[in-house]
Amino acid sequence: MTVILIGALLIVAGVVYMADAVLRRGRLSDPAPSPAKPGPTLEPRRRGLGFLGLTQNWPGLLMVAIGVVLLLSVVVL
């Protein structure tokens, strides 16, 4: 039972860590109007998909992977 709880907590903690890592990298919106689009927009300029990289998210991915291994070890045993 303890292994299941630890695995579930690691998965939740990994997902929360990755979400927090994305939010810590800066504002998601730019209130200043850009020359191409009139008015404020929620689309940041030149943000790209860099927030999905492994270099920033490896601790969260590691927590999720360990949690999955713990949950699967209970099923196999």
TrEMBL record:
Q: Which UniProt keywords apply?
A: Membrane, Transmembrane, Transmembrane helix
Q: Which organism is it from?
A: Mesorhizobium tamadayense
Q: Does the keyword Membrane apply?
A: yes
Q: Where are the transmembrane segments?
A: 58-76
- Report the protein name in the record: Uncharacterized protein
Superkingdom of the organism of origin? Bacteria
